[in-house]
Amino acid sequence: MKYYVVDSFTDEEFKGNPAGVCVVKKYPSAELMQKIAAENRLSETAFVCKREDGDYDIRYFTPEAEVDLCGHATLGTSYVLAHFVEPGQTEFLFHANNDDLVIRCLGGGLFEMDFPSWEPKPVAVTEAMRNALGFEPEGAWLTRDLIFLVKDAETVRNFQPDIKAIKAVPEGCGFLLTAEGTESDFVCRTFFPKIGIPEDPVCGSANCSLIPFWAKRLGKKELVNYQVSPRTGVVYGRDENERVKISGHVTLYSSAEINISEVN
């Protein structure tokens, strides 16, 4: 099984979000894919399989669970296909659970993903949320993830996560902190301890929520998100109402082969 590690949402090594990409001719069992993801110990490992019609099926696994959608692993998979599987191809269609994802190579090393838009709905700030944050946020919103608006970028950057307290908050899969930026439209940090990812260095799918949130708040369609995790990363976004466009660079870290005794 060919295996690649790529850093997504960056054009520099050791920044962005590392993802594993396994290119398979047919899917191994879910149990085996989960074991491989646990062995890799990356926030996501994507398994991509070409279909007879030329499209690709894609599945995503954290070290602890399969998830429906992952942005940085999709971006990284597109890079792998464009460079090692179908060189010269400029568009890929992925089938990911209930979503059909169109990925385009824009040139200059940029890849653009067409993802669903998740409209954030305001929710009350609970005591569990306050305990996890350690302060009172400007407000809270919910999609797949729980979003907190905080007063400034430095608050996001300097946040010291209590992973146990974050995991104890019942609402949402992810725990997102965001604020208006100074050198970008907004900044964020993203935490997913419920699925085995204490902090996701740069979460692409979180932008399905953050892009419509900030597009409405700032009154603009084109947005730049600077993720202020320790690794940092840059996400380019465009709000298109029912869909969002999420773009970024990808850097190859390694390529190898995974050797396993059986694949069924």
Account of the protein in words:
- With 264 residues, this protein is of the alpha+beta class.
- The chain folds into two domains: 2-114 and 248-257, Diaminopimelate Epimerase, Chain A, domain 1 (Roll); 121-241, Roll (Diaminopimelate Epimerase, Chain A, domain 1).
- The chain is built from six helices and 17 strands.
- It has helices at 30-40, 71-85, 127-133, 153-158, 163-168, 207-218, and strands spanning 2-8, 17-24, 45-50, 56-61, 66-67, 91-96, 99-107, 110-116, 121-123, 139-142, 146-149, 175-180, 186-192, 197-200, 222-227, 233-240, 243-257.
- An eight-stranded mixed β-barrel has the order 1-2-3-4-6-7-8-17.
- β15 and β16 (233-240) form a beta hairpin.
- The longest helix has 15 residues, at 71-85.
- The chain is globular and about 50 Å long.
- The relative contact order is 0.20.
- The mean pLDDT is 96.
